[in-house]
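Researcher: Here's the sequence for the chain we discussed earlier.
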Amino acid sequence: MSSANPVRGEAEVAGHVLRPTFTALVAAEAELGPLFALVERAADGRLALSEMVALFWHCRVQDDLRREAFADAVVRGGLAAATPALRILLGQILQGR
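Model: Thanks. This is the structure I predict for it:
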């Protein structure tokens, strides 16, 4: 597995590289609703675990896991380990890199 490249706005969670491409964010928005509302929920501490995992799922680079297995890997890693990746992705959504 490769590691995340911060120059591309990538993050890493549970050993998986996340890249917030336009296509990935459109897919996440189709499932989760407007991304700015997602950012607002996160800022208010109201982001559900399922929403965080869905955002990660759509941004993942590797395509070698079922969604359930990916979600389990994120949960096993813990929220403290997932928070930096979430912060990076939300920052990319707001900055539009």
